């Protein structure tokens, strides 16, 4: 069963965020992530007071691999750079059977 990351990100410093964007793809590629959707043109229908700056959806071969990617040393290093310039809400979930 596939696993998914669904991330909602608010960027406070776009210049510093580029450091994160320079590191995160290597971790995602290592774990076979497939980018399904990425966008900044977001309409809030329910649940958010304001729309996030960006939303991203990645597909992995399994839920376990999605978790492994998030907890990997490579992604955690990238996350250190993101934490200084952006806030994120990330969900990891199973796909349908």
From TrEMBL:
Q: Which residues form the DUF1330 domain?
A: 2-95
Superkingdom of this entry's organism? Answer: Bacteria
The protein's matches in SUPFAM superfamilies, at most eight in alphabetical order, are given as: Dimeric alpha+beta barrel
* Any one Pfam family match given in the protein's UniProt record, by short name: DUF1330
InterPro entries named in the record: Dimeric_a/b-barrel, DUF1330
Q: Where are the transmembrane segments?
A: none
- Signal peptide start-end: none
According to UniProt, the name of this protein is Uncharacterized protein (DUF1330 family)
């Amino acid at each position: 069963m596939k696993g998914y990351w669904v991330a909602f990100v608010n960027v406070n410093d776009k210049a510093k965020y580029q450091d994160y964007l320079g590191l995160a793809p290597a971790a995602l590629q290592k774990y076979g992530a497939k980018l399904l959707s990425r966008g900044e043109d977001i309409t809030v229908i329910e649940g958010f007071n304001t729309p996030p700056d960006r939303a991203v959806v990645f597909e992995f071969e399994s839920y376990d691999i999605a978790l492994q990617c998030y907890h990997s040393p490579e992604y955690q290093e990238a996350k250190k750079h993101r934490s200084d310039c952006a806030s994120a809400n990330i969900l990891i979930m199973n796909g349908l059977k």
